[in-house]
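step 4 of 6: structure.
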Amino acid sequence: MDTLFSIATVEAGIRLGLPVALAALGAIINERSGVLNLGLEGMMLSGALGGYIVNDATGSPWIGLLAGLLVGALTGGVFAGLVVTFRTSQVVTGIAFTIVAIAATTYLFQLRWDIGELPPRVERLGMWPLVALTLVCVAGVWFLFRRTTLGLTISAVGESPESADALGYNVVLIRWMATIAGGALAGLGGAVLVNGPLGLFIEEVTAGRGWVALALVVFAGWRPVPAVAGAFLFGLCDAAQLRLQGTATEVPYEVFLALPYVVTLIALVVRARRSHTPAALGDPYVRGAS
Amino acid sequence: MRSVSRRFGETVALDGVDFEARPGEIHALLGANGAGKTTLMRILAGLDSPDAGTVEVFGQRIEHFEPGPIRALGVALVQQHFTLVPTLTASENLVLARPEGALLPPGRTAGARVRRLVEQFGLEVRDGVPASQLSVGERQRLEILRALDADAKILLLDEPTAVLTDVEAERLLGVARALADQGRALVVITHRLAEVEACDRVTVLREGIEAISDGAVGGYTRADLASAMIGTDTSGTITARTTRRTEAGPVCLRVRDVSLGRVSSLSLDIGEGEIVGIAGVDGNGQSELEAALSGRSAAESGEVSISGESIAAGDPRSRRAQGLAYIPSDRYSWGLIGPMDLSDNLELGRVLPIRPNRPARHKAARPSLDHWDVRTAGPHAKTSSLSGGNAQKLVLARELDEHPSAVLACYPTRGLDPEAADTVATRLVAAAEAGCAVLWIGAELDELLAVSDRIEVLYDGTLFGPYLPPFDRAAIGLAMAGDAADRARTATGGEPGPP
């Protein structure tokens, strides 16, 4: 058990928390504008693959991160087109989006590297640059919602789109921007996962971290700082379970695998009852419909 | 605005309306429900666009009806449904409406902006709490402050006093006068005569047409305005009853001191075989009365009884069991389930634990559908496929087939074509003649005049009446616009209505 409570565990926890934190920040921007993004997992995964391929091709993990960001923004744009402009059901579209993204990334990955072939490990970034990057993003999102007119506008659109519309704001445009920004951060999160702690891509590499990020957003009441704190709680549990798997106990290792998800779920149940959901979350906006 | 027209599907909301607001004046826009007042104002604010006609603001013709550019010209609409963002405080709402650059101002500066406006215009609003926690009056004042903050030159107030207490309403009209004196143009939408008297000019809309166009308020009596608002032609779409009861039978439906929301301590007796019409402009307590009597909401106090037997408050099931049938104002929300077929909807409320198979259910439904003249492809048709009239007849079939002893009919002919409306009215009259007590809450005075044995006017949660046949149309119209309430207040030595 000595290895469990060590600096190494904490460091691993931070590394594993970073992608979740970034995805959660993306989801916050998204959902504060009233767009429920159940495609987050898919956007992370797309960003992860984009980041991996570009890093492999260029040898630069930084360019890999940039690629993840752009791929994420692109997926966010596609999602915005569907749910904001064509007003498809946000729940169904989000889930379908994730399923398609899992299939598509697997397919694209296998086009490049045959099954059984060992995909190359790519150059990895150290922990501290990524921590710095994430902190910049947290500060940015915090600043956006606390101190800028744009952030206030995004919140207004998510709370009361008809009010924002009556004041002359373009609800559709703002939701588009928020969805693209959310996708970009989710994609960045995916790219951080493969260009940071892992250094390689495998099928479904995100392993539900997008869903965890979505739960954390609810847990954090759509506020960036608690969401990031929650992401590191998740990361710590994830790191702890990796350590615990290595120790000889009578508990089956599947229990440890489930640990981070269980802790997230409990935190969610305990905290979420008090949080305020953006009132228009999940509702497409049609002028004069309400 | 010149010859503005707007249709919604079959309904003509506005038919060639001219309207002018002048600086320094308060212009009252008077009309009953559905007269087109709100549509006219939404067009002027850019939230809707006219099918025909032109709108000019300070000589500039509006080509694209979008709220942003029209706001920039100085037009602000304070809607009945407030458009504040409920989670934001007063200062945040002001910043949202008129940002000062890309960064939010620090809390202190934003707070100072609210205080300055509050002092300047005398409209008190608390800052620092989310708008959702402000009182209705405060929210309205904040909406007005927000419009003034944007230096609105033309201020449109849609039923501003509907949600206010008398004192607040009076203060608001005082503020409106002060704003007009500063050279702004104000438009106040209302259905209250007392408020029209506080204005300079008046336009009366009736069914999308101007009954009085841009007249000086002083030139009209209350009776003129009331008759312009409700019309004088008595040719309603509904065939009038040939016989009326002169004496009501024993009391069947008894409402005692019922209070809920706007409705305060309302009492009413309806005899067997009697139709009592509740006239009044929407929003005077009709929806609360409907909710309390149907059992959708429990009344705050009071009692409803049927043939001497009290109905448990807020319990629709016992209400049904005791023989009070309910024809809801919104038949699609509270009356029918659209995706289910006709036979299923007919059975709602009396479904057996184990149901007969589908063909048997369909067969059982057929006589009832024929009897009530529900025109449809058959019992298997989806209820959502029915026209408004047939849907309403389906509700009648379900509610009246059980031979209730009383019927609560809320706007039973709303949205129906004349033929269907007439059928529905005839059926309700037939139910009354069979001994049923009918409470008919209606919006169209003509149909109430055609069917009722007695009319009561609901104004501001209180009943005024009774009015008995032969009905005095003008007197009922005045009561609907608040004249009877104003008189009652004066008589009891209370505060007169808003000046």
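step 5 of 6: annotate
 - The domain at 251-468 of chain B is CATH 3.40.50.300 (Rossmann fold).
 - Residues 244 and 322 of chain B are 27 Å apart (CA to CA).
step 6 of 6: archive
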